[in-house]
TrEMBL record:
Source taxon at top rank: Eukaryota
The protein, known as: Uncharacterized protein
């Protein structure tokens, strides 16, 4: 799907360029997460459904995005407030969920229907629907493309919703975090740009063509991958639960105690492990080099399993490769084109009496908050300027 991904990221860059000020000045403030969400939503819709939504260019969100985001909001509301209030049982809450489910089903069904009519796509570009349809008769030998089993269709719709949710939210927030960390660590940003100059050529305006011709170059960028892995190490956004079978125990190294887990949900505390000083030197620092130094170097990770933002094992994130490719392409195409900087003063001005300039964690206005997975506070207000005019380049 690389050509499709590059196409969507190119639109993202044009939008950022359009938001830059004239003559090298900072442009108007906007919320970066809104732009990254539209980008990743467009990508996952193409990957899952083969549908081009053009969310990035729309002035109003599509009904598909609106219904899905509202469903995520309602899910979080039930999960959080539901602990204290019986919100999940409130009739209007359930009615809203049913309404969204119907909207999503009505929008997804035509995509499934058209695949059932044409049959799965055997070309290189296959969507999640294509992949699923290959197994149409797995549980029911009488089912076929002409006569699909109703339960199969229901399950496909459920899985498509899971893909649409899991496939955009996390990547959109991770992109924001990556730009935040690069803003705070200019020496790392300079190294990243130097790697892109060396591998893709010094002119950033040629990068799209270079990538289209030689997409494998995306896999020859060790420092870029280090930036991405380090972003995800410091900010693992998603988590998961396991339902342990009877007889499953947790143990702690050096202790003879065995903790029976039956009846409990086991949650891997990825953020705790990712900053545990037993596994990481200078654990709270952003050091992409730890992913490029040779084995044996004190910076090198001592335990492969301590990095688990996509979880580990047979049910780990199925979209890990797609997410890493998206992050690589955005990093390559954006980092040398524009400068991105947080713009809290402009945000506060826009919020007026609702501004919360003292809301900080560890002295930072940008902390992680929100529904479903964590999100950058207030959608990460930023402004951008074109890089060719930046003092760093002219110096
Ligand atoms: C930076 C981006 C992403 C992060 C940090 C992330 C993280 C995770 C994590 C921690 C899980 C739970 C795995 C487990 O239970 O062991 C998960 C599951 C999942 N992810 Fe991702 N994910 C990302 C991007 C994506 C993308 C792009 C897709 C879509 C292609 C995707 C689709 C899924 C699906 C469908 C599951 C459920 C898998 C299953 O239950 O077998 N994710 N993800």
């Amino acid at each position: 799907m690389l050509p499709e991904l590059i196409e969507e990221v190119s639109i993202f860059i044009s939008l950022l360029e359009g938001l830059a000020g004239s003559e090298g000045k900072w442009g108007p403030m906007f919320q970066l997460e809104e732009k990254t969400t539209n980008l990743t939503f467009d990508i996952i819709c193409r990957a899952a459904l083969g549908l081009r939504l053009n969310e990035q260019q729309r002035t109003e969100s599509s009904p598909l995005k609106l219904a899905l985001l509202d469903q995520i909001r309602l899910m979080s509301l039930g999960a959080n407030a539901g602990r204290a209030l019986p919100i999940g049982r409130m009739p209007w809450h359930n009615a809203a969920i049913r309404r969204n489910n119907k909207t999503l089903r009505d929008l997804l069904m035509p995509q499934i229907q058209s695949k059932l009519e044409t049959g799965p796509n055997d070309s290189q570009v296959r969507t999640i629907i294509d992949l699923a349809i290959k197994y149409i008769d797995k549980d029911d030998p009488n089912a076929s493309i002409a006569t699909p089993n109703a339960e199969f269709v229901d399950r496909l719709i459920s899985n498509l919703k899971a893909f649409l949710f899991a496939g955009h939210d996390t990547t959109a927030a991770t992109l924001c975090l990556m730009f935040k960390l690069l803003q705070d660590n200019p020496e790392c940003l300079a190294k990243l740009r130097a790697e892109h100059d060396a591998v893709l050529g010094p002119d950033p305006s040629h990068a799209v063509d270079v990538l289209k011709k030689s997409p494998h170059l995306l896999y020859s960028l060790p420092y870029t991958l280090g930036v991405i892995k380090e972003t995800l190490r410091l900010n693992p956004l998603a988590a998961t639960l396991r339902d342990p079978p009877p007889g499953f125990f947790l143990t702690a190294p050096g202790s003879s105690l065995r903790y029976p887990m039956e009846g409990w949900g086991v949650w891997l505390s990825a953020p705790g492990v990712a900053r545990n000083p037993n596994y990481w030197l200078r654990p709270n620092e952003f050091i992409p080099e730890r992913w490029t130094v040779p084995d044996g170097d004190p910076l090198h990770p001592v335990n492969n399993h301590a990095w688990a933002p996509f979880s580990i094992g047979p049910r780990n994130c199925i979209g890990m490769e797609l997410a890493l490719v998206e992050l690589r392409i955005v990093s390559v195409l954006v980092s040398r084109t524009v400068e991105i900087e947080e713009a809290w003063d402009d945000w506060d001005k826009q919020r007026g009496s609702k501004a919360t300039p003292n809301a900080k964690i560890d002295g930072e206005r940008l902390y992680w908050a929100g529904d479903g997975i964590v999100h950058p506070k207030d959608g990460m207000p930023v402004h951008v300027r074109l890089r060719e005019h930046s003092p760093a380049v002219s110096a």
